[in-house]
Amino acid sequence: MTANSERPTANGKVFLVGAGPGDPNLLTLRAAELIASADVVATDALVAPEIIARIPKSAEVIYVGKRSGAHSVSQDQTNRLLIEKAKQGKRVVRLKGGDPFVFGRGGEEAEELAAASIEFEIVPGISSAIAGPAYAGIPVTHRAHATSVTLVTGHECDETTGIDWQALAHLSGTIVFLMGVANLPMIVRKLREHGAPASRPIALIS
């Protein structure tokens, strides 16, 4: 996916790149190509060291990673950084764990880039929502057991987020909570309070 690709510009370009679920062998060819040719790489904390090692020595590496309770750079700062570097004519790779549009704030960054008339491209990555269960031998869909899959943030699932627990508790398909370890007791409690059976199978994958 690209934006503003027909508009001539003296600016550089930003690539919102998914680095996959952690296994460097699951990095896409397009992602590897862009990392190797980047002028600037703004990377998340969850990107594997083996993938970081692919960044050329000539590139500027900026760590904008976010972990629970430890945001080194705010999202607004990251947005401004991407725009600033692109306006300097740089080829900027915004490197994210998983897929940039699956709880990766890629949508927010794309909106800011579009508003600033910065050309950008989305490079999908393999999400841990699919890869994690697959590595554990669990298909997220199966004709005999689950004909749908629902992705839910487990990081922001307190009382204020508007998650429809009633609907989730009664879904017959697979539910994948991402970033949910810290809130696991609350997730279980909310599902049970809204009618999820205690016999429902679960798996914890880290």
Write the layout of secondary structure elements.
Layout: E1 2-3, E2 13-18, H1 29-36, E3 40-43, H2 49-52, E4 60-63, E5 66-67, E6 70-71, H3 75-87, E7 91-96, H4 106-115, E8 119-123, H5 128-135, E9 149-153, H6 165-169, E10 174-178, H7 184-193
Parallel strand pairs: 2-7, 2-8, 3-4, 3-7, 9-10
Antiparallel strand pairs: 1-8, 5-6
Helix pairs in contact: 3-4
Provide a concise account of the structure shown.
Helices cover 28% and strands 20% of the residues. By secondary structure, it is an alpha/beta fold. The chain has two domains: 122 residues, Cobalt-precorrin-4 Transmethylase, domain 1, CATH 3.40.1010; 66 residues, Methyltransferase, Cobalt-precorrin-4 Transmethylase, Domain 2 (2-Layer Sandwich).
Largest beta-sheet characterization: 6 strands, mixed
Termini gap:
30 Å
What is the overall shape?
elongated
Q: Beta-strand level of the residues, as a percent range?
A: 15-25%
Low-confidence stretches: none
The portion of residues assigned to helices is 25-40%
Strand order of the largest sheet: 1-8-2-7-3-4
CATH topology descriptor of the largest domain = Cobalt-precorrin-4 Transmethylase, domain 1
How does the helix and strand content classify structurally? alpha/beta
Number of separate strands: 10
Order of helices and strands: EEHEHEEEHEHEHEHEH
CATH class of the largest domain: Alpha Beta
- Going by CATH, the homologous superfamily of the largest domain would be Tetrapyrrole methylase, N-terminal domain
What is the name of the CATH architecture of the largest domain?
3-Layer(aba) Sandwich
